[in-house]
Sequence to fold (406 residues):
Amino acid sequence: MDINELIGKVDEKACLEFLASMVRHKSYSETEGEVALARYMAKELEKLGITSDLQPFDEGRRFNAIGTWKGEGGGKSLLFNGHLDTNPVTEGWTVDPWGGLVDDKFIYGIGVSNMKSGDAAYFCAVKTLLDAGIKLKGDVILTFVVGELQGGPGTVAAIEAGYKADYFVNSEPSDLKAVTMHAEALIFTIELTGSTRHLSKREEAVDAIAAACDIIPRINAMTFSGALSEEHKSINRGHIGVVRGALGKDLVEWRPPQVADFVRLKGTARYAPGQTREGVVADIRAELDALESRFPGLKAELLPDSPEGRLTMPAFEVSKESRIVKSINKAYETVRGEPQPTGAITPTGFYGSDAGHLYQKLGMEGIVCGPGGRYNTMPDERVDIDDFLDMIRIYMLTILDICEVA
Fold:
């Protein structure tokens, strides 16, 4: 069958309705809605006529939905990965977050960008190929996991259950760009302890709030030592997201005439493959040492968040010469008629994703590439319809190239 004829078989209306049906599930992490969506996806996989597994984990309280389209043999296997859990709805929405509204340009809903449109795109890609009677040499594995927003316990459970392939596509929102690298995250707390005085003797105080105002922009501007290249350095970033200052570690607020002697900052650092947690901590510590010099009498303590008992997202990287990267580049150019942007592309390069687990735990080569991104994690979250439909076509061609027609 001609390639153009095949990708023209995408049932656009049905694909949009399938995505809307996913959006209508309120699938917050560790809720009944998350379980309900996993069950729904498992049933939809069964309808495709492929092997469906509603995989329990966390002592049977949570579930992944995983489908396997078995090939005839002799080809490479390809695993798609995406999560079903969503961020919470915020203020400012003007449409129903769970309505699955479709207009002439967008489809709307909480989680439609992050990342139900990616999930639906690879489901619909496989359905279109199956409906066209295509048979493959290699296997295609569709993983619809939960808990990505909590560090990835769903993907880790799938890995531990033995799911793997020669290559993977993680469908996190990248606006269809091919992301070959993303950062690892470090969460940290900084405690600044000064010395209080009444405002009448402010000159004698060590003002913790003034010190915080000095250090915050410096941390927000940081990059870290040990970057392997300028491209690696491009996904370095520090950020302070929580600031509290008052009197004492209990942060007593009822006495504003006194100079604040304590500030607690909470932040995150993003750093590239090849850089280390220890190196990042040392770099931040050096900034705090300099702060203490600028504010004599100040004590600045750095408390890296302990990862014990909590999953964190590892960094991810793949060579631009990898077969999976070249395959999705070629598919993109066939569908869109132009070269695909490829590399450590931001803002996606600052994200964490389950691609890190697949890369670090299994050594798999993969790519992060999905629809959505521009309107991610904001009121009236939405995805361009054209991007969603083109992603289906790109995934179809990638499957055909990697797994090969039998």
